[in-house]
Amino acid sequence: MKKGNPKALLPIGVFLAAYLGLGLLFEYGLHIPMGFYKIPIVIAFLLAILVACLQNKSLSFDEKLAVMATGVGDKNIITMILIFLVAGAFVGVVGRSSAQSVAYFMLELIPARYAVVVLFLVACFVSTSMGTSVGTITLLTPIAVEVAQASNFSVALCVGTVVGGSMFGDNLSFISDTTIAACNGQGCAMRDKFQGNFWIALPAALGTLVLILILTANHQTTPIHADYNLIQIIPYVLVLAGGIAGINVFVVLLIGILSGSIIMLITGQTVATDLLFSMGTGAAGMFETSMVAVLVAAMCALIRVYGGFDALLGFIQRMFRGAKGGQLGMGLLVGTMDIATANNTVAIVMANPIAKEMCADYGISPKRAACILDTFSCIFQGIIPYGAQMLVAISATAEMGYSISAFNIMGSLFYPYLLLVSSLCAIFLFGEKNK
Fold it and tell me: What is the pTM assigned to this prediction?
């Protein structure tokens, strides 16, 4: 390993100071609603890149541009951006009404006393199908509040169950930006990553179901009914099945877009012009995420050339020994970045180049690295009180006429806590079978 240069990590510190520092100031110092998310992350990264360009006088500005261009032009970055855009188009086509049909269909089939269990299962399925935890929370939180009101369950329990279930899908979905970022950043197949993550997520999900069943036993409730259109579930099922079967992700998403378009048009949910507009809006919703991927690639290319990653790797090697220690260090690395950025996709993108070098040094496979990055980022993202998931849940609950705080919800986030336990067991008790 080359000699490290800790000063080369300064751009990351500048980004964290600008993004995290100002975000906390706006949110808690000035008490601006959703203040943490009023900080433009693109501007924060541009500031960090400016600082990186001012470092290392031995390289001219043109040479630094060439280094950044090499980082941005990486095949994995280009693939990641294209998948982001196509996945956004798919979500724009199917819309939220499709997932809502799934939710109410399952709630109608199951006895109301098991409504909280159903909420968790629905959140798991919808988030896995949609590929977005925030979208799932936005969709299901009003339903969770309705369930709580109709069945006398705690609002915090119902909302916390939805938030936890949404992180299950965010971790596993083939069209989730976290999965896309982790797989392409580490160069592993999504199917392999799904299989590795599934056996970590399944015990946590089963444990969550047991806890919910214990806490909701002996409740007397009334049935919950609502209208739904079951045919709208087909695009989600096709995408999920295609991903599990190992079909190329672009083909899977195109199948989802085509089937969703046909169903939306045949059922009269939209017209061709509105469908195209929704498709474009969905893709446009991924523009910022795509730009962040570009800027992080440029910044990390400079940091790598300056010796920053070598310094960070040296520190991790001193702190963590062996493959198991390396995996824990990788998980804490992406978790720390998630705490700082409150964005699990950004945290993964930032951690990817460091994690890739850790794979070579610690003998960790790309599949295992992708699993760890995605899982640990989702654990922290699902728990932090200023994360988008928590803020959206609180806002949606308030719109339904209930006042609730992040700390009320945190007491019912069984799945993220159990996912942490399951992840640590996977690292220290069960070795990697296939490298």
Answer: 0.69
